[in-house]
Amino acid sequence: MKLDFGKAQIVKGDLVGEISHIDAFGNIVTNVSQQALSRFAKKRAMVISVDKREIRGLKKGYWEAQEGELLALIGSGDFLEISVREGDAQKVLKSRQGDKVRIRLQA
Predict the structure, then answer these.
(1) Cβ contact 104:49 at 8 Å
(2) pLDDT (tens digit, 9 = 90+) per residue, 25-79?
């Protein structure tokens, strides 16, 4: 069974998706696919916003972040994930399934 959380969309020049799942470790999985993110950003610098918190750019893996640091990366399912290295992103952000995730390009 495949769940359909819709696709991220361009809204006022930003790519807007939503939280589709929070895993047992507190990692936040969005409905923003790697393909949609690549088409939108075209290798330009970006800022990912969840509620009022901002994450600058993508990491290739957890090793690129400091312990306790909020980070964004493409997860094993090829979707944008928001995590905390050795922590719980859901607790840090107080996010829930369905919350919006906004990606904007840096000027």
Answers:
(1) yes
(2) 999 999 999 999 999 999 899 999 998 899 999 999 999 999 999 999 999 999 9
On whether residue 4 sits in a domain, the answer given is: no
Q: Give me the CATH number covering residue 91.
A: 2.40.30.90
**Does residue 87 form part of some domain?**
yes
Give the range of the structural domain holding residue 95, as residue numbers without chain letter: 9-105
Structure tokens of 105? 């390009």
And the tokens for 83? 């995590």
Number of domains in the chain: 1
How far apart CA 104 and CA 107 sit, in angstroms, is: 9
Cβ within 8 Å of residue 41, ≥6 positions away: 15, 103, 105
**CA separation for the pair 35, 93 (Å, rounded):** 25
- Other beta carbons within 10 Å of 10: 12
